[in-house]
Amino acid sequence: MANIGKSIPHHARLRPDAIALVEGERQVSYDALDRLISGAALHLLAEGIQAGDRVVIVLANSVDWVVAYQAALRLGAIPVPLNPLLAEAEIAAIITDCEPAIVIGRGGTVGERSPGVPMVLDLDRDGARLVETEADPVDCTACRPDDTAVILYSSGSTGRPKGVELTHYNLLWNAQAFALDLLRLTPEDRGYGVLPFSHVFGHTCLFTTFLLAGASISLAGRFDPEETFRTLARDRITIFMGVPTMYWTLAKAELPPGLDLSDWRACVSGGQALPQEVHARFEERFSVLISEGYGMTEASPSVCGQRFFGAARKPGSAGQPYWGVKVRIVDDAGQDVSHGERGDILVSSPGTAKGYFRRPDLTAETFRDGWIHTGDIGVLDADGFLFVVDRKKEMIISGGYNIYPREIEEVAHRMKGVLEVAAIGQPDDRLGETIVVYVVPESGASLDGDALLAEWSACLARYKVPRVVRVVEALPRNATGKIDRLRLRAMSNESGRKS
After folding, report:
1. What's the rounded Cα separation, in Å, for the pair 64 and 105?
2. What integer pLDDT is reported at residue 157 of this predicted model?
3. What is the per-residue pLDDT across 179-216, written as a single tens digit (0 to 9) for each?
4. Tens digits of per-residue pLDDT, 234-247?
5. Rounded CA separation 42/54 (Å)
6. How far apart are CA 325 and CA 351, in angstroms?
7. Under CATH, domain 4-380 is a member of which superfamily?
8. Measuring CA to CA, which residue among 227, 264, 269 is closest to residue 245?
């Protein structure tokens, strides 16, 4: 029995009255959560959901999200959580790709976002009883360690969605590594669940880890600095996890008077590199250490982390590998380079994903000879600390979200008068990067930057919408005729300094 969903019934038996989830004034014990999940599982079973079926969940962090997700796990089905901030076209593309048996969401548009799906449950309408009905405990369906537990979607480098299949063993290993190797969690710990559970950082490092440890999670649908401070004090939060944008905001935000934050003992940063200045300012202000780490969905995600206990810490580093993880830095020929030299980051880990859903070509390209070929550039020092230098891929990371240029460029290419377009990331103190787009008009055409922004806003999630549009006569190219994005970034950075 390897079903990762067994953690909740386990703690419901040991500590039934212990609080598992907090959502505003609502508190849900492990016993009550187990009964809600059992009720939802029976509901899904009555609707014909079986082991191996894919269950798309389009909800923000909430008790309802946890109940729907865990109910799918209990039946041996495969949850596919999606961020409700995604545009309808993006959600529709993922639904088309994964062909779910059911979509669970909220709001009248959930059906419109789910073309061709056999069943749609809208929790604001007739689907509410899915997450509101308790039942006697239902046993978890037996699963093998290498069975797919969840599919987490991110956009591919070509703009096509790709689903990463993580197994029950992947999640169990990563949760134990985070709980024991990094945080030393106990059932008395309380985490702040503001990271989207549809993203691997929030999904595995916080949601899965805290429930495995029998700890408590305070749920938040969105990040707001004042509300974060008040929740930290009210719920006596011990662990905060966030992306660098959140730390940048908290380090500068006004702290409401009279709040007791003495239970707060540790933070974890991920999603992108944390600027050293922000790191130092935050730790100095709150006297709470931040562990900066490195990971990826394909590794479920944890690879390295700065330890809190019994190990050295190096500013600017992503730390040392977790138990069972190996990291290599290789040159273009695949040969290991010396300590201190840059090269491609390769990872071998118990958290290595099963592969990409229905993408054998991409799976074979990324997972080779027992190593994940990350596409990132890094340096290992003599002490085994990893320093991530750059993203080899063209990905833009803004506010902790991964954004691929082609997603933006494809929308622009549908606009009349656009000849060429290139999207890049420009360094930004708060977001890490902001999106800058260079557009070349067709001969004789006049481009309206506001119209382009309106089109992006209609077709893409808000965090993918460019901040700056620059109309130019031509794009720089390299010797092979490809657009030279390095030169574009240099141009953009220079323009940013002058503005």
Report:
1. 10
2. 42
3. 999 999 999 999 999 999 999 999 999 999 999 999 99
4. 999 999 999 888 99
5. 16
6. 8
7. ANL, N-terminal domain (3.40.50.12780)
8. 269
Tell me the pLDDT tens digit for each residue of 422-473: 899 999 988 999 999 999 888 888 888 888 898 899 999 999 999 999 999 8
Q: Rounded to whole angstroms, how far apart are CA atoms 322 and 305? A: 7
Q: Which two tokens stand for residue 169?
A: 């063993």
In the block, residue with structure tokens 């004789």: 444
CA distance 106 to 101: 17
Yes or no: domain 396-498 corresponds to CATH 3.40.1080.10 = no
Which helix (H) or strand (E) covers residue 355, if one does?
strand 355-356
Give domain limits for the chain. Answer: 4-380, 396-498
Is beta strand 78-82 parallel, antiparallel or unpaired with respect to 54-58?
Answer: parallel
- 116: region left, alpha or beta (phi > 0 left; psi from -120 to 50 alpha): left
Average pLDDT over residues 380-394: 86
Q: What is the length of the chain?
A: 499
Residues 30 and 15: beta-carbon distance below 8 Å: yes
- pTM for the full predicted model: 0.85
**Distance separating alpha carbons of residues 252 and 233, to the nearest angstrom:** 18
Single-letter code of the amino acid located at 375: G
For every residue of 421-490, DSSP letters joined together read EEEEEEEETTTEEEEEEEEEEPTT----HHHHHHHHHHHS-GGGS-SEEEE-S---B-TTS-B-HHHHHH
Q: Is 419 exposed, middle or buried (0-12, 13-18, 19+ CB in 10 A)?
A: middle
Q: Which amino acid is at 360?
A: P
